[in-house]
Amino acid sequence: MTIKVVRGNPTPEELAAALAVVRARAAAAAALPSGAPPTVPDAWSDPSRIAARLVPQPGPASWSRTYWPGG
């Protein structure tokens, strides 16, 4: 595996930290069984669940509808 620094001048510590992350990810991927299905993130971490609701219309009490669901 060849890694090339394209921009910047990392210190030896920064470069070692980046390589440690790359090697850890590669080791984790190699440890998975070949037939294992990929993991699916939980729905609570999906950003689209926030955007799926309609934004409250402006009005005197719109500030209270920004937090309470169905309000």
Give the SSE map:
Blueprint: H1 12-31, H2 48-51, H3 62-65
Beta-strand share of residues: under 5%
The tally of strands reads 0
Structural class: mainly alpha
Measured between the Cα atoms of the first and last residue, the distance is: 56 Å
Largest β sheet strand count, sense and barrel closure: none
Radius of gyration: 23 Å
pLDDT < 50 runs, ≥5 residues: none
Overall form: elongated
**DSSP summary: helix tally:** 3
Mean pLDDT: 77
Q: Roughly what percent helix?
A: 25-40%
SSE string: HHH
Care to give the gist of this entry?
This protein is mainly α.
Short key terms for the protein model shown above:
mainly alpha, 39% helix
Report on the architecture of this protein.
- This protein is mainly α and 71 residues long.
- It contains three helices and no strands.
- The radius of gyration is 23 Å and the shape is elongated.
